[in-house]
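Attaching the record inline, Q. Sequence:
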Amino acid sequence: MLEFVKSTKFKNFSAYIAVIAIAVGLTFNYQLFIVENGFAPAGINGIATMIQYKTGFSIGYMSLLINTPLCVLAYFLVDKTFAKRSLVFCVTYSLVFLYLQKLGFEDFQYITNGHDTIFPVILSGVISGFVYGVCFRTNSSTGGTDIVSKYISLKRPQLNFFWVTFILNAVVAAVSFFVYATPLEDGGMVYDYKPICLCVMYCFISSFVGSYIIKGTKSACKFTIITTHPNEITEEITNSLHHSSTEISALGSFSHDKKTVLICVINRHQIIDFKNIISKYDNTFAFAETVNETVGNFKQIKR
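Structure, as predicted:
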């Protein structure tokens, strides 16, 4: 029992360390690639970026003003652990952002001056996607629309979490059309769709990378085998691929012959070797399914 408590505390401590680390990473991401390149990223931070662009009011202060009450509401309405970790993320992000602003970071910023802005969008989108994925896996968030989306999904489970987030981010993209308009000397404005395109691209890249992180990298392949040679196949799988299988007795619905169903999950690079094993045996049929992530005790048998 004591070991379980210690393990739980260590996992909780590790989660907070991860949240702080990725919050610092997102801060550098904004400072280096976003704030000086004339586009708004996703969510509340996108709104804060546009406010800083128009008024000079710091993203760090705006993030604190918006996300602190959202995290307090999430504590009572969503999930306590989620709310606390989200608050740690938002406070860390804001304080580090304000510190970097005072420190002066101009020599390190990737400023395109309106040319080839696609490159900082790609870089910032990849970094942000990684941050979003890690946040999701540690039961935390970057605040803002993530908290709103989770609350809406909790109250309206029939609504897809990602669609809710997409709609909220689409509003940010639409507003950026007016915010980043270029003023003319006669008082007029030149409107450009470029900020919208950059915002949409940022959202797509960050969502794609975040989804990949959420799904995990422990992908595998599941084979279901119907055979009359279960012992031979199981022995070969164990000796050659160093994986085991689950055996189920079955009955053929057409021939009424007794069969055995083997279920085996293997690493993706072993698929060809697995097919070669199956091909040796008659009265054997198999089909494969992709496993996005393995959870629990999926590991190779020791040689």
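The radius of gyration is 26 Å. The mean pLDDT is 83.

More tomorrow.
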